[in-house]
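LAB NOTEBOOK - FOLDING QUEUE
OPERATOR: T.R.
BATCH SIZE: 2
PURPOSE: Compare the predicted structure-token outputs for two unrelated chains run back to back under identical settings.
PRIORITY: normal
REVIEWER: second-year student, initials M.K.

ITEM 1
FIELD SEQUENCE / FIELD STRUCTURE:
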Amino acid sequence: MKRAACVLWLLFCLLPRPLGGEALSAPAAPSAAASVQLFDRAGRPLRSFLSERETYSEPVSLSDISPWLVLAAVAAEDRRFYTHAGVDARAVLRALWQNLRGGGVVSGASTITQQLARAIEPRPKTLWGKIREAWDALKLEREKSKEEILQDYFNALEFGNMTQGVQAAAKFYFGVPASALSLAQSALLAGLIQSPARLNPLKNPKGALLRRGRVLEAMRKNGFITAEQYDLAMKEPLGLSRGERPFSAPHFARRVYEMAPDAARVYTTLDKDLQLYAERAVLNHLSKLKDNNVTNAAVVVLDNATGGVLAYVGSADFYDEAHSGQVDGAAALRQPGSSLKPFVYALALQNGLTAASVLQDEDTFFEGGFRPRNYDESFHGGVSVRRALACSYNVPAVKAAEPLGAARLLNLLHDLDFRSLSRAPDFYGLGLALGGGEVTLLELANAYAALARGGEVRPVVFASQPRLVTRTKRRQALPPDVSYIITDILSDNAARADAFGLNSPLNMPFPAAAKTGTSKDYRDNFAVGYTPRLTVAVWAGNFDASSMQKVSGISGAAPIMHDVLLYAHDRYPSGAFERPAGINAALVCEESGLLAGPDCPHTREELFISDTVPQKVCDGKHEASAAALQILFPVRGDVFKYDPALPSAGQQLHFKTAGAQGPCVWTLNGERLEGDGTDIWWPLEKGKFALEAACGGQEARTDFQVL
């Protein structure tokens, strides 16, 4: 019976090629089940995702495959490929003899065309299965050219290690495209066709080399290569690459993949070099904050002109399960704290306030018993809008928001595309002015990019080909003149010196605006910096929502932002912010906010929307309110490190005040220090410290630690 079956199989295989009038329909070639491949803006690979067949695949045309590989596959698998009609009669006769001797189907004599048919529709390894496979091969040869069959064949083959197709295999094993495969490399891949698992060169290099040698020998015997070419190829080492697949920007890559699951090749907006630098900056600064319970950070860098994402760091370490490294911090909902204040003041500037307007920073109860406090736990008396925003004082921000109402502020934030703020205005109340809501880092970055663009909101762009963007509609959310004044305030290092000092991470050696934000109980902190060309937004905190140990935006997120913006500006330089039409400058009195008179002791040049320049000149009879006392340095929450390798005498902190009237009494952890100046030097020592200064009837305090 078995011998009869073998004869039947032989007779079928020896049937002539179907004639033209027969209704034959070839099986469809394997769908282009290509892996989704992501590239950065320069075409460098970022990541490949598995295809529907759970393989890494990249279909290519036959013209993009090395001729050596074609010859090697023909020599190893089907040396009469170009002359048979899908079934090789001579090979069938040989197989028949082997099968008759074996008493069953021992050898199938499968041609390249039959192997393709099997890849398209696998058949059981039975007599009937072999007959169906041969029939499918005949149909393929009827409808396709030899070149088309080869192309489909090389794209359908699996080469082990989850690689499908010669392009994916060539890149995985040798780090080159299929077109660049050498003779020896081609012979090795052709050898894998027989048994990719058993001959896996990463696990069985000896077996892979042996099989490669047999393929080269077959090529030599068939006259495909010369003896000299054979000898050189046999001497060539395996030369395998590390077999690693790109895995850059994992959070960004996942987001892009979910946006374009059907695209085979996606050219993103990401700058791989900037991405790597941002990742290193996160790790570097978090290492300095590990004792303060800061375990994670996220970074977003946007190209202001295009909206393109240049860098996107979702967490410090994607593989860190202990700290939820796979959570995307750029898309997570967090409280932005004071980083929403620029938009509060932007709305206020459109409704009567100016940068010179004076607001009282004082202990105030608002509706509902809301009683905001400043970060430094003190009040500063009458302060201009410029100083209030630059120093991020809380009470003035709420006072600016109060006449506007939560509904109007929320509408503006919606116009700026803060989609995450989805609750009713009453839910947020005036606390929205201090970041009492939850937004994403990407939303925050794009809102600040709108300030850099003169108030225009644009979609965030993730890829250029295909074009992948957020649902944001391009619109003018803020007037250009208002946006410019807010930007000018956020660029004013002198205006924020009272709160942050002159040498804070917010100060850049080129035109740049910056703002920080810290949520309640130090659960989140933010820092955003922007130039005319770039916006860098950073979040720092913990994904489990645990509190950091007094790490604010200036000490947590800001140093990361500073370093990333510095590096990014070198790659994408820009000049000063361009002043729009409709901006006027005038000399004002700092105490009154009116035009400066001859008797005003403190004046400055201020910017105004054209129709908001004060009309009244200060008469100089106002009471000059003494500036509130404040410890300028160290800033609350600062962390310093004592270096035992350096002389103790050279390791000192300079305690400095602002607004001090007369001599000061300094105390550290309740003990009085030597000296009564408005600034003194203190020799560094390890510990946690509470510093107080009492000057002219005023008191100020801060705290810091030395590691």
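ITEM 2
FIELD SEQUENCE / FIELD STRUCTURE:
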Amino acid sequence: MLRAIICAIIFLVAPIIHISAQKMNVESFRPDDKDITANTAPTLRMDKNGEKCALIKIQTTERQFMFDVGSLGIEYLEEQNASHPAEIWLYVPHGVKTITIQHPVLGVINDYDLGRSVKKGKTYVMKLTSDQVSTLVVDYDNEQFLNVAITPPYATFIINGMKQQLSPKGTCEIPLSFGTHTYRVTAKDYHPAESQVIINDKNNKQFLKIDLKQAFGYLTVEARPEFNGADVFIDGERAGALPMKDFPVASGNHKVRIHKQLYADYTRDIAVTDSAWVSITPAFSANYAEAELTVPADKGAQIFVDGALLGTGSWKGRLEAGHHKAEVRKDSHRTAVAEFDVEKDRKLTLTLERPQPIYGTLKVVTSPPGATVIVDGREAGLTPLTDDRLLIGQHSVEVVKKGHRNEKSSVIISENRTSDLNFSLTDICTASIIPSPSYANIFINDEWMNRNTSGALKLDKVAGEYKIKVTARGYTPWSRTMRLDGNTKDINVTLHRDYVRRNELYINAGFNLLCCQGVSFGVGGYYHKFNLEGNFLLGLSKSETIYWTDQNADTYPYGVSYKPMGGMVKLGYGFRIGNRIRLTPQVGCQIVSLSEKEEEYSGYGYSPVSSPMAVSATFGARLSVSLSPSLALSASPQYAVGVIKSDGYKALADLSSKIKGYSDGFGCNICLNLYF
């Protein structure tokens, strides 16, 4: 009694739970790199393009799912079975990105994004879950699965009026309530089967195997190899070509016709029974004659017989006996037609008419006139031109006139019509600029122009004024503004060596004259017209001997002479004088220090001064004369004014005018310069 009450409560409550809680969800989707099911026999499947399918293993405890992957389509669907009871195997072509999942109870997941395009021959795992929590005791006690296996696997299986989806192997598993169920199985070329199945065992699944009986037999046609390719017709419909073996034919009476060109048709009536074989060996009889077709004086004409192209100009071969239609075709010509009969085994020689040309008219006008007209690569005359013997169809037209740009166009010529072409020719310059040296750069309106390997630049410019500039390193630039037109002749440009460049570096070595006699070494450079130069001076001359004595000591005088040593930095601004001379006014700073050299000594002496040094401001100019692009002589006269002097230097300058002249007065540096 208690058990009955509990069952009744469950029976009443379960539907409410079932309706409110049922829902499905894709918990995960991932590739399984270790699973090779999709890439190995016998579980490998191929799509309609002959490529390996991707396999999606759908893990679920539910059944009766339907799947849709869009236009690519599902290739195979294998429901849960003994080999994979908790999985549905879905075979799809590579490239699938989304999937729609439907269930009659759990609902629909539309266009679920897989997050990637599936790849061919690869296995993927999808975990499909639901929160359907109700299980009816009544249903559980009165329901069981029916496992169905059908041959052929593409058959249609309907049970209780509902169509069931079969796997590629022809299997399915259906939950059925206890009782009697009616089914029907149909398939093309098979006899249908109808019956009933009883479900009454809750502990064991029921199995149903259905093998439909064939409603067809097999036809084999055997013939000699030379007849291979002959068309086989069954009841007026083409079934294939020879050789034919074990071709399935529906049971019943049929008319077979075999057609082979140049032979009489072979016909035969056959009777086909279920699962039986019928074999025939046709006999063919020749039905042709040797023929020769010729088109006189036109080797380009194409010969068609009954719509098939046989040859060009002439043809020899076999023609089937009977009535035929010959056509001689040629582009832009009127087709010539001839009908004739061929008698079996009687040679035929036929001369066909030539196709007649179809003409139209072309009129070409140019501004200015007098241009040469070239039609399809053939010179046709000068403009204005009218040509009324031009074949119909499309033609290429080009007009050429010296001093003008060539113009091209295409035109379609029609029968009994005049096609007009009008060209406005552009006046252009086609002369060349030939520079020397050949590697010089050429600019047109400040745009660098690429030239050929010889260095010449072929102009193709619309008439007008252009700025032409030619430059080369180590040469004076050449620039002109010129009018270019069709009468312009080749422009030869010879650049002159540039011995004085705007930007260059140099090193020098020379001799300093006047106040500080000695050798000098320097480095400098020009940027545009600005000059920066540094020099080091090593004095060779020495001052007169200066005698020093200690008034408190009984010693002889101490004699010392001095040599200058120093350096200078100068800034300048250069001016070109001709092609080889540059004058650069300069201002700078000069530092001179003195080194001692003992001349005479007697007794005990001492050093009278320490660190004799002077700083002077300099004013002068640098005059350079280029001997070559990389070698020049320079003279740099200057006047120095001492601005800072040490006490020791002042003491020495008071005693020696020569030492004073080291920091104050005129000097001149004569150098040999090497330019880069």
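REVIEWER COMMENT (ITEM 2): Confidence is low (pLDDT under 50) at residues 1-21, 132-140.
FOLLOW-UP: none requested
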